Amino acid sequence: MKTTTKSLLSVAIALLAAFPAWALEGPYTNGMGLTLAFMPDNLLRVTRQGGGPGPASMELSYELDGNRVTITSSRVCNGETGVYTFEENDEGVTLTLVSDDCSGRVADLTDVLWTKAP
After folding, report:
1. Which CATH class is domain 2-116?
2. Where are the domains of the chain?
């Protein structure tokens, strides 16, 4: 029985390492009216509540590679791609800029704690 439990645990750890998207799946909010919903099909839904610049909602694509997320949209930022690292802890997720020429996206995504939305 112990061997089976260890084997299952090893498989679970290997799967989590192979599919880090699970760490970001679902909606996160920044407490300032923005919600990010990382969907399993590499679709990122962004919703803005309470007005502010930009569209009320949009869909972007994202790719994960370890703790690095690449975000692309043809509708905003002239199709530019932004690259960020993410760190998740008990409080939420933070995104840190690696490279992105879209200043609006950088301002929206960084310097804020994204908490898991209900």
Report:
1. mainly beta
2. 2-116
